[in-house]
Design brief:
The chain is α+β, with helices and mostly antiparallel strands and about 170 residues long. The protein has a single domain (about 1-170), classed as Peptide Methionine Sulfoxide Reductase, Chain A. It has six helices and eight strands; from the N terminus they run βαβαβαβββαββαα. Strand 6, helix 4 and strand 7 form a beta-alpha-beta unit. Helix 3 (about 65-75) packs parallel to helix 4 (about 105-120). The longest helix is centred in the middle third of the chain and has 15 residues, at about 105-120. The protein starts with a strand and ends with a helix.
């Protein structure tokens, strides 16, 4: 199994998005790369802890490569926006790709470079080693499964992307 830590705005939608993929074995919302240990949501929002709302994504790389996973990640974020995604603003909503295995860096950088070339300018998505990760409170885990009409900055059709891809693959070509 391979693990990446992906910050992409509010973690509720990011978790819901990645949970749809067969290759993803586990997701967990949390707070990454901040200055304090085990922060609460309130501390992250109001006390400038430096953490980003992040989703730990554990996936089977034989089913989905790092570059393919990150190509999907780029579908759900505005990679040029600084400290903002959707209506959420603040450093906790910055975008970032964090890793705990340096061997993943070449694939991460290749995916970042490909997206920057597609857009035609450098991205505001940070790539950093994981300094720390603290799981979010239980009420933040699988939030949109429990509250399907809760806020999400991700386009609703992207939350069923895997199903759409499977359906399209079964369609006969004309």
């Amino acid at each position: 199994m391979t693990t990446l830590y992906l910050a992409g705005g509010c973690f509720w939608g990011v978790q819901k998005f990645f949970d749809q993929f067969d290759a993803v074995q586990e997701t967990q919302t949390g707070y990454a790369n901040g200055r304090t240990e085990a922060p609460t949501y309130e501390e992250v929002c109001w006390q400038d802890t430096g953490h980003a709302e992040t989703v730990k994504v554990t996936f089977d790389e034989t089913k989905k490569s790092v570059q393919d996973l990150l190509a999907d990640y780029f579908l759900i974020i505005d990679p040029l926006s600084i400290n903002r995604q959707g209506f959420d603003a603040g450093t906790q909503y910055r975008t970032g790709i964090y890793y705990d295995d340096p061997a993943l860096l070449p694939d991460i950088q290749a995916a970042w470079d490909r997206e920057a070339a597609r857009i035609g300018q450098p991205l505001a998505v940070e790539i950093l080693p994981l300094a720390n990760f603290s799981p979010a409170e239980p009420y933040h885990q699988k939030y949109l499964d429990r509250f399907p009409t809760g806020y999400c900055h991700i386009k609703p059709w992207l939350l069923s992307l895997e199903a759409r891809r499977k359906r399209a693959a079964r369609q006969p070509r004309k």
